[in-house]
Request: fold
Amino acid sequence: MPLGDCAVYVEFSKTLDLEVNSAVQRLATIVHGRALPWVRDVVPALGGLAIHFDPDHPSLTGDALTAALNMVSECLKEGLPKADDVVRTVEVPVCYEVEFAPDLAEVAAASKVTPEEAAQLHAGSDYRVLMIGFAPGHAYMGGLSAKLAVPRRATPRAIVPAGSVAVANDQTVVYPYEISGGWAIGDREPYSEDQDEIHARAIYSILENEIVPMYYEGRDEGVPAEWIRRVKQSLMQLSPLFNSQRMVSEYMTQLYEPAHQACLDISRDSFEPARSRAHWNEQVEKVWDNVSFLEVGAGPDVSVLTGRPIPMRAVVNLAGLSPRDVRVEAVIGRVGVNGNLEETQVMSLPSVEQQGDAFVFLKEFVPHQTGRLGYSLRISPNHYDDPLTRPCHALLKWSTE
Reply:
């Protein structure tokens, strides 16, 4: 059956049948191995095979739907390879501790087993990838114990951490990166320091096995058609976002017009705002040496989980200044192998309580990636209501000083 204008779907079963699915996987191997120039991609599904094609390719003669069906028929007549010849075994390390398995107890209760038994049932099975879907690299796997066949969550999670292993119905999945999901999270791969290297190898693998060959393919015969097609597609999609008109417009709206308005504001009432700001600067500088951090909340001492709030807290002696005179910020980042913060971001902490002459600044930070997280706190005079005239060398103190 047609699947849009540039693909066809050959269906063998409307329901999940493991034997049919195995045959589809082996058929996909044969079709892909033919390397027909008009076939762009071969995508096996649970009960069928999708073949994406280039309708304008010169080697595609006649109707694309008929050509695809004829090719599938020829492959089936030739015979499918053995299942063991097209599979590759991958071992995925997982952990089932409560910290990493927020839904394990719920899954165990629904399955009428203990959490330990549920973990043993899940870890004791061999799984086979049935299809890749929902998101790139998101594998649906069959082989889950019937006892653990629980329904999807009624309310999907907005963010599921990368590496999470989840179950629903009679399948299990491994989330390749942080995305939303409604499957019960039973366990997860533990964070390791070599994850960045693993991700880098995956990127280089795509470059080596897909991008670079595509760039050189067909150059002896002329222009690499697939590479040019992707270049045109990129130009079509990216040009509206990167052009001189957008650049000039952003300069006007984000720099020139705000600077002009700031000039009008500061010159109001014979430059009274400027004199007021100068007086404020003088008062802050007089007491700044006495401003200090009295107490700082402890940072996370273990790897953090995506979506789990972390409180950022500081008690500060403002030396007579008010909370609106200062800005307390948390500089948050991933702890690198050398102990330094990497990929940092800044979050402002509001004042929530006064304790004598001191003030408590507090806010929760929700991480969007797993791993080792660290942070440091800093305080500076609050020039942020007028960022265009903020001093380049503004006063600043760190909690570690």
